[in-house]
Amino acid sequence: MSYREVELLAKVLFEVVERKVSIDVAFKRVCRGRCAKGFDERERLYRLCRNFVSDYVKLLCYVGSRRVSYRKLARIWLKGSLPELAEPYCRLSIPRWLYERVSPLIGEQEAVSLFEAFRERFWWLRVNTFRGSEEGVIRELESEGVELEVHRELPYMVRVLRSPKPVRLLKAVKEFRAVPQDIASAIAVEHLDVEPGEVVLDMCAAPGVKTSLISMLSGGEARVVAADVSLRRLTAARHLLRKLGIPETSVSLVLADSASLNLRSVDKVLLDAPCSNSGAIGKDPGVKATLTPGKVELYSSTQLKLLSKALQLSDLIVYSVCSILPEEGEEVVTEALSTFDDFRVVPHRLTKLCSRGYPGYIISEGVCRMFPHIHSSDGFFIARLVRSPG
Ligand SMILES: C[S@@+](CC[C@H](N)C(=O)[O-])C[C@H]1O[C@@H](n2cnc3c(N)ncnc32)[C@H](O)[C@@H]1O
After folding, report:
1. Domain 184-387 CATH (choose: 3.40.50.620, 3.40.50.720, 3.40.50.150, 2.60.40.10)
2. In angstroms, what is the span from residue 358 Cα to ligand 1's centroid?
3. Number of the ligand 1 atom closest to the C-alpha atom of 234
4. Of 213, 297, 320, 366, whose CA is between 20 and 30 Å from 249?
5. pTM to 2 decimals?
6. For 166-182, how does the pLDDT look when each residue is reduced to its tens digit (9 = 90+)?
């Protein structure tokens, strides 16, 4: 254990817990490209920080009610002598309330598999057909030494099984012929069945990953109105869309609170709502350190507001969240449908690739849940809502 490592871990954990930033942002802020000589050392330190942040709840269980500084936590962790802990939530290093919320829904054994799967990060790439062909980009990735698996239903999606370098540094990724995008996120967009000529409203669009897939699936022939409340994130979306080669005339970026959008009706709406990110713990273990039931409650009420607006704007809405909590999935949709009773949940042909919704909700059979331990994806919820005729 070196003094340097203790300092790095303590500072990264401070950023994650106190400043509530993701592990990637925390590491970048603390390291600033200076914490390591060379690329391999930087990757080693990043992984060290990631694993340390992931073990935060476990460490808190271990120290109990003692007040312990971040440096001390780093020293304890680096010594590597944490005993086996009795409580499953401690062993899994998941907040107790989250474990207790999810395990009755799927059973204890399944919950253990789910939370263990979050220790791994699954990598998926989407071939950007505006910049290359499926075969060409897959060949290019393979020739760079990437071991991959092409998705059996969506041939433009590939799972990276092994890569000789971090995915972001692969040539095809740096040159925007391939885009990191989770399979669940692609399946959400597929639920729109977008057609050339349609007008699609993407209500929470930034940083534009799903917007760009909507455009790609229509061959650049759909009109996408991409709204977001954050100027910073919308600016990032503008850059991303340009780099991906999305035809400029096909996407209109709109800075707005989508809950009060003043729009004439559109053909389809994607509502990829702001959420707890509890489905993205594999990407950002920092979520485990900062998520609280209070935050989930706030997200649920924003989601319901946005979904109620969406149901006034179109006859077909795809609602998605990167969350494993029913408060942000089944409950939001059930509540919205109790007001907008002319809408039904209608499964899509790809819903068959998903798990059903959590049991006990009237919509459970028609919605899509995806999980890392089953689908090698983020934890995701997708519902397709269609206005019934008559
Ligand atoms: C899950 S992210 C969207 C990710 C995006 N769909 C993609 O695939 O790249 C949620 C987004 O909702 C935006 N947001 C939150 N509240 C909003 C609101 N009231 N109106 C519009 N956008 C909102 C956030 O700024 C954030 O960019």
Report:
1. 3.40.50.150
2. 25
3. 27
4. 320
5. 0.96
6. 999 999 999 999 999 99
